[in-house]
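About this split. The held-out portion is used to measure sequence recovery: a designer receives only the structure tokens and must propose an amino acid at every position. Recovery is the fraction of positions where the proposal matches the reference. Here is one held-out target exactly as it appears in the evaluation file.
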């Protein structure tokens, strides 16, 4: 069991032991808290039945929906076990293909689990199609929606699901996690990762793996002194890279928000408005980025401008 999962497991196990298991679940919390791992383990516990052998690998009664490969070339990369680029959203066709499977009986037992991760990335038509299944779920079918930003889900979807929230971890817990999963990382890198992670062990690990320390230094410099001549924003664009992956972009947004939140903790309440506004705008931009597929250079300038707008004695920029 990962740290911070105790309450989630308690709720799941209590529901499993009860007379009527709720058919829809939302696993909500910051990216990098292990929600996907818990969803898979919880689904396996759900579909397992006494006297029925369960497969070690993929389970025929657990359907996992995520963003598909971008094209045939990326699909071949996935088939070869190589890193591949994904589409921006989970499509309505994926939901409808899943729904067609729900017209058949489960393979090994009486239950089937559908994991959608991240449910934040459902396109509009996919959300509406999923809602129909949540309104009239087939007998023995249960949905686990993994979400980093539950507010992006349709209110009608949220109202039909039970929400389990995952807490962030303290610095000592993240330090132990990094010691286990990144044992060769330098101590300075670990300390920087913990400071930038905002309580997410996955974000801390991404900080190390994606070498985000130079980005963190630039972001803190912009936030501390502004960027009147745009020079630091140019350096930020160079550090982000010309073709960052979606995962890297997400890690960069997590980093920027964590740095703003870190600054808010040490700023007097009377002076916190600019930081709070920049943090809210950064969250909104992070939500828009996957949908609009912004140019990396544009994103770098927008992120840098939001940080500069919160610098002392600076006016907010028009972003």
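Reference sequence for scoring:
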């Amino acid at each position: 069991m990962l740290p911070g999962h105790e309450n989630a497991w308690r709720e799941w196990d209590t529901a499993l032991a009860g007379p009527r298991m709720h058919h829809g679940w939302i696993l909500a919390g910051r990216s990098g808290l292990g929600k996907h791992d818990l969803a898979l383990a919880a689904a396996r516990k759900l579909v397992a039945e006494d006297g029925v052998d369960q497969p070690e690998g993929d389970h025929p009664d657990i359907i996992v929906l995520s963003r598909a490969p971008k094209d045939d070339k990326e699909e071949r990369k996935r088939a070869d076990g190589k890193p591949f680029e994904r589409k921006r959203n989970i499509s309505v066709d994926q939901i409808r293909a899943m729904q067609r499977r729900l017209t058949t009986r489960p393979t090994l037992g009486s239950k089937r689990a559908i994991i959608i991760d991240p449910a934040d990335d459902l396109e509009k038509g996919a959300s509406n199609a999923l809602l129909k299944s949540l309104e009239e779920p087939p007998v023995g079918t249960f949905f686990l929606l993994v979400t980093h930003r539950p507010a992006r889900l349709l209110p009608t979807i949220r109202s039909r699901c039970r929400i389990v929230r995952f807490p962030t971890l303290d610095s000592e817990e993240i330090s132990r996690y990094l010691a286990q999963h990144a044992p060769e990382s330098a101590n300075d890198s670990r300390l920087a990762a913990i400071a930038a992670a905002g309580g997410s062990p996955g974000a801390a690990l991404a900080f190390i793996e994606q070498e985000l320390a130079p980005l963190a230094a630039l972001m803190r410099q912009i936030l501390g002194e502004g960027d009147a001549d745009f020079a630091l924003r140019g350096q930020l664009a160079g550090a982000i890279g010309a073709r960052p992956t979606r995962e890297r972009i997400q890690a960069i947004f997590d980093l920027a928000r964590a740095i703003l939140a870190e600054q808010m903790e040490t700023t007097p309440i009377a002076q916190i408005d600019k930081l709070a506004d920049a943090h809210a705008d950064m969250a909104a931009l992070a939500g828009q980025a996957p949908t609009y597929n912004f140019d990396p250079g544009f994103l770098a300038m927008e992120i840098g401008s939001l940080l500069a707008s919160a610098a002392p004695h600076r006016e907010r920029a028009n972003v």
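Annotator remark: The first strand starts at residue 24 and ends at 28.
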